[in-house]
Amino acid sequence: MVEVKNLTKEYGKKIAVDQISFEMEKGVIYGLLGSNGAGKSTTMNLITGYLAPTEGEILIGGYDLQKEPEKAKSFIGYLPEIPPLYPDMTVWEFLSFVARLKGVKKDIMEEQLEEIMDQTGIMDVEDRLIKNLSKGYKQRVGLAQAMVGYPDVIILDEPTVGMDPKQIIEIRGLIKQLGREHAVLMSSHILTEVSVVCDHVFIISKGKLVASLDMDQLEKPLEDVFLELTENEQEEQA
Fold it and tell me: What is the 3-state secondary structure (H, E, C) of 150-219?
């Protein structure tokens, strides 16, 4: 579904993402794990087309993101770290707007949006202005817009930021449901969250992919694996 080949992003002399390669398949939840500044958000921005790579290739649904961006992006739903919301719209107005942008057919739009709002727990605020919502609800609306059109690939950058413990549990459950029919990539610096939700984990340190591991194959707790890999990477670069 997604192929990332030798992906590199440079800002002057600084290398934010360094020769990263991996693949994603539908029906699997992938965790992108790393400390703050490791290159997680940059990697996601490259995969979604928000940034252009310095080098490398990204194929989504068989389409080259650089050569056929519209076709490639049609497979993606994206929740960035700061949700892309219009504060002066109501929740329903905003999601309807997103649905029209994504080309959702009018005869199924209302049913689809109601289903998505129910799944994300925002039905009770559909008529409220987004600017009047709590941070947790805004995050839910951001997740809902990523789901509109039911894209094959859903990319989530720190999806539970700003949520209370109850909301976090609910969103984790929703992400697991999405993983049954979509390829899901979620970034986090919270080890517990990746352990609970993900089937596979990519660990990034200083812009490099230092590990690609199935969760059910881990012989040690993820915390120990993460620390060992990042410490080894730091020693090699020292």
Answer: CCCEEEEECCCCCCCHHHHHHHHHHHHHHCCCCEEEEEECCHHHHHHHCCEEEEEECCEEEEEEEHHHCC
* Domain assignment present for 217: yes
Pairwise CA distance, residues 233 & 214, whole Å: 20
CA dist 49 → 28, 61, 75, 104 (Å): 22, 14, 12, 21
Look up the domain containing 139 and give its range.
85-150
Mention every residue, 6+ apart, whose C-beta is less than 8 A from residue 85: 94, 130, 138, 141, 142, 145
* Structure tokens, 226: 């993460």
In 3D space, the residue among 149, 141, 16, 10 whose CA is nearest the CA of residue 82 turns out to be 141
Q: Is residue 106 part of a domain?
A: yes
Going by DSSP bridges, is the β-strand pair 55-60/63-64 parallel, antiparallel, or unpaired?
antiparallel
Phi, psi angles (nearest 5°) of residue 2? -130, 130
pTM of the model: 0.88
Supply the DSSP symbol for 128. S
Model confidence at 233, in pLDDT bands (50, 70, 90)?
low
What's the mean pLDDT in 21-40?
A: 91
Average pLDDT, the chain: 90
Quick one: 159 and 141 in the same domain?
no
